[in-house]
Amino acid sequence: MKKSFKRTFYDVLAFLVIISFCLGATWSNAQEDEEIEAENENLVTLTYVEWVSEIASTYVVKAVLEELGYEVEIMAVTAALMWQAVASGEADAHVAAWLPTTHEHYERAVKERIDNLGPNLMGTKIGLVVPQFITINSIEELNANATQFGGQIIGIDPGAGLMNKTKQVFEEYNLSNFKLIDGSGATMTAALGEAINNKQWIVVTGWTPHWIFSRWNLKYLDDPKNLYHSKNQASQKEYIATIVRQGLKTDKPKVYRFLDRFYWEASDMEQVMIWNKETENADPSKNAKRWIAENRDKVNQWIAP
Asked: Are 230 and 236 in contact (CB under 8 A)?
């Protein structure tokens, strides 16, 4: 009888220990879930492409969101992944949609899974760019002068919408005497600067806004076939738009409201780009905060309640 009682006592004790452990684990897991949920509510993830223009805009947006009390994670990716991450909900937003032409195919692929908040900068442009001292003025004149250009058009990263559009330009203008050279924004600007210093002929894939137009005398080659503009929207001005994931307005209304109001001029972006190029180790984060400090009235309009 005593043994039975003792065994029952220890069985009950063991049961209570197990229950206590399970309740403790459940409480701990619940606490962890609450902490993760709170952390996610305070985290904003932005995607961008490492073009000088998008570095400028993304770091400014990041700095403003941090002022609002958010933790901000930025992810440098390809243009395709930038759009896909927002469409899938892995990222909250990007402020780098070049429309209606450059990123037209990216937007078309995910249009039903994202929210387009409209332009955050008007008056963009893409095309083939040469120094002012070069005596041709049209893409149609390139083939006849291929030797002087070394048979090359210096491009940027191969996944860029600008590069995809330039491949169409190659076909439509039959630029058989040229080769499109992949690279990056940095390699393109380095090649351009070296050629200008040596008074050599060069043609690059370029876009506006960009600090190169403030530093050197450049011009776009005329595009008679209007290939660097949407065929259906040739009269519409090019712009950069803000793209957010569906559900952001409900999940993070303050973030959505700011992103919906975010709008600046090409001169604003160019100023940040110039600061980012002034020194070799320029800090985009510090320059973004500098611009915010010098343009407080504009920023206050973005974040007003």
From this structure: yes
For 224, the token pair is 């008679």
Contact between 152 and 205 (Cβ < 8 Å): no
Orientation of helix 253-261 relative to helix 52-67, angle to 10°:
140
Domain assignment present for residue 180? The answer is yes
Of all helices (H) and strands (E), which one includes residue 272? helix 266-278
pLDDT of residue 230: 60
Helix, coil or strand: residue 129: strand
Residue 113 CA neighbour count, 13 Å, CB half: 15
Of 36, 93, 53, 96, nearest to 254 by C-alpha is 93
Amino acid 233: pLDDT: 47
pLDDT tens per residue, range 144-180: 999 999 999 999 999 888 999 999 999 999 999 999 9
Does residue 2 have a pLDDT over 50? Answer: no
Helix or strand or coil: residue 179? strand
Whether residues 141 and 289 fall in one domain = no
Within a domain: residue 208? yes
pLDDT at residue 28, as a whole number: 53
The pTM assigned to this predicted structure is 0.80
Q: According to the model, what pLDDT value does residue 1 have?
A: 47
Total domains, the chain: 2
How far lies 50's CA from each of 47, 79, 164, 170, 233, in Å? 10, 9, 17, 25, 27
The alpha carbon torsion through 290, 187, 51, 193 (nearest 10 deg) reads 50
Which range of residues forms the domain containing residue 114?
43-123+236-303
For residues 185-197, average pLDDT: 96
Task: For residue 205, give the CATH number of its domain.
Answer: 3.40.190.100
* Pairwise CA distance, residues 260 & 274, whole Å: 26
